[in-house]
């Protein structure tokens, strides 16, 4: 008898957790996606986001870093991403980029 009550309690607890997870999943789907900003709509990209130019990265000292930037050009087989730059980057970006 005790085993049956014990089993029933844990079954109800498990079903309650499943129902709670389902409710949060449904609420997440119902939120409008129009409020979400697309990276192109924002003025700049955060650290770690894929970029093509220094001007796309947020902040005065952040740069578009290409770890495998071979031959000095912007040919990057593995892509570039926004990263923290050095102090002189800020002066360079202010000359180059209108949005800094």
How would you describe this structure to a colleague?
Keywords: Disulfide bond, Knottin, Neurotoxin, Secreted, Signal, Toxin. Belongs to the neurotoxin 09 (Tx3-6) family. This is U12-ctenitoxin-Pn1a. Probable neurotoxin. The mean pLDDT is 76. The chain is an alpha+beta fold. The radius of gyration is 25 Å and the shape is rod-shaped. The chain contains 2 helices and 3 strands. The protein has a 3-stranded antiparallel beta sheet, with no helix packed on it. The longest helix has 29 residues. The chain folds into 2 domains: 30 residues; 48 residues, no CATH class.
Secondary-structure map:
Blueprint: H1 2-30, E1 50-51, E2 62-65, E3 80-84, H2 88-96
Antiparallel strand pairs: 1-3, 2-3
Structural class: alpha+beta
Helix content: 25-40%
Order of helices and strands: HEEEH
- Distance, first to last CA: 72 Å
Strand content: 5-15%
Mean of all residue-level pLDDT scores: 76
If helices are DSSP runs of H or I spanning 4 or more residues, what is the number of helices?
Answer: 2
Number of DSSP strands? 3
Strand order of the largest sheet: 1-3-2
Largest β sheet strand count, sense and barrel closure: 3 strands, antiparallel
- Radius of gyration, taken over Cα atoms and rounded to an integer in Å: 25 Å
Low-confidence stretches: none
The coarse overall form would be rod-shaped
Number of domains: 2
Disulfide bonds: 44-58, 51-64, 57-82, 66-80, 90-97
Function: Probable neurotoxin.
Protein name: U12-ctenitoxin-Pn1a
Subcellular location: Secreted
